[in-house]
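Researcher: For the record, we're logging two predictions in this thread. I'll number them. Prediction 1 follows.
Model: Prediction 1, sequence and structure:
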Amino acid sequence: MSRLMRSCRLSWIALVLSALPAAAQNQHDMTFHTVPPCTVVDTRVVGGAFAVGETRTYNVVGTGSLAAQGGSATGCSVPGFSNGIAQVQAVALNVVAVTPTGVGYIVANAADQPLAGSVVNFAANQNAANTTPVAVAQASGVGDFKIQVSTNSAHVVIRAVGYYSKPVQTVYVHPVPGDNTASGTALLSAMSGITNASATKRYVIKLEPGTYDLGSTMLTQKAYVDLEGSGQQATVIQGVGNSDGTLETAVVKGGSSAEIRDLQVKTAGTSSLPSIAILVIDGADTRITNVTAVASGGVSNWAIRNRNATAVIEDATLKAEGGAVAYGVSSKGTGSAATVKRSVIEVSNATSQTYGLSANAGGTYKEIRDVQAKVSAAGGSAYGFKQDDEFFPSASKVRITNSTIDVTGTSTNRGVEFNSLELHIELSQIRANGTNSIGVLATSGTTVVEHSEIAGASDTVDNTSFIDALIGASRLEGGAASGAICAGVYDESFTFFAGPACP
């Protein structure tokens, strides 16, 4: 594109932005689309010449006939409204003043905005033309644009040659005062009504402050449709979250190339079925950021269940409570590779097993960084991080960095337990409290601990079966480090062990 062409295009976009309503002027990424030149208005055919100072409103978007205003009977290929949202913000119009009776000008703007700015200046008995962007109304039913002929009368002919659209569309959902169920229905309707989202046409569903109760219906997020609340305490999506036998039902199911942010999702499950707050499944790469997820009330409870998917979880607060089993984050199945950063995980009161972060059946984690996990069990076992079967991806490496894992249970307590991978613990604190507690237990694979604190009453680090643990510049508190080689390690009494022996 030549410098002159770029300059003209930027000037044209600036004109469009200045003509748009204030809320739309922030959309600086509009895209221009050409259409075959098409007649929109011809007052010589319909309507007659404009009188001095007369204002008329016309249509241009959509597929309807424009014959009633002297234009094309089949429309001008300018997209109309979809799901109640205007697909076009402005149109490029060739405006012609025909046989004016004297000197004057034509002004134009969106039908729902004040008239502003001359688009054509003309002299007596001389046709005058100009191609210019004109904003269109963003609400349906009021017409698209309006024009006024000032000073002297003239016929007007208008042809469309293109239109401007923005790649991100915003759908606002407002709560129904005093009716959380109706608010939930409005949210479900907003999501189901979006049918044309794509990589080049993204949507944001913006939830105003309120509670949106979905009952037993799962909100299935569509690809390229972000879900944005007004704050983790201000916007709450709640539902039963009860899952079927394959654990594929939740309050919210994440979508591919989509984000869930700035809201809270919580379950109100029943004791007959598992309960899941947020489910990411089957290849979805959902990003979950600035979200509080709370799971409770089910026979088992998951704050986030990532199955065969690659969820990214950032700046989140994840809580799972009660039932027989409770999970903060579960990453399960081939292709599962969750990322968890800058998040707080609290799992408590399960009667059998509790997990802060769990991985199995081929699931893994790309990164665990800046995470605070507190895990306790009302009965049974508690695990901060557990990978619990032999189907872990071969040669997989997981890093736990700058994180705190604190575990308390009534029988088996493990800060970290894994097999079949290489686990690196860096700048972290792993504490397993109570009898029969082990800080880090590896039944196979490799453990590397650096600049960290590991505590466990029975063992701090247990790699007895494989003797593949390396511990450096760290503090070991409680039991022995079995099957490990240490370098520059000290115990709870600050007794220093240069190595290779461990406390």
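Researcher: Logged. Prediction 2.
Model: Prediction 2, sequence and structure:
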Amino acid sequence: MPQKLTIVDYGMGNLNSVKRVLDRMRVDSIISSRPTDIANSGKIILPGVGHFGKAMHNLQELNLLDVLHEAVRVANKPILGICLGMQLMAKRSEEGNVEGLGWIDAEVIRFRVADKLKYKIPHMGWNQVSIKKNSPLMENISGLSEFYFVHSYRLKVNDESDILNETEYEETFPSAIERGNIFGVQYHPEKSHDAGIQLLKNFIKL
């Protein structure tokens, strides 16, 4: 299987920051919206910042839905969703009230906090993650590690075995998921310094 990594370009955000970090790590990666590049890739990163409904519309318009399903569900290629990219893996989102990719039994819901003075939405900045299960994605990452977050919506995961990390922000929410070859993180590893670099290295090694 080719080992090149494809960062999926569907018009939604932090592509170049991910690519710069991978370049510094000397990872053979490309940014592409071409189905053939995704089909021929060994690993896939699905990044994203923005609106869930718009993102699903873009994936459909670019004819990327079928090739992503084929790569992930049939060929079992490792995929890492980052921020919105992870949320797209859920069945549905309140943001746009549309269906997602459906790879994880989860919904995307808006953060609802009681103490709006203490807990600002969007949730923005550094926060600690709690590692909920053993995973190659978390190898050599401390259970006290902090990652960088920027989001107003969060996952509600129906199968707890899919939860890889949890984070406290007034309430406990899933901040990373894992099911087989499917990995997703709500935080931004490309902006999370040493812990984020280690996570990306772990993904590359899968």
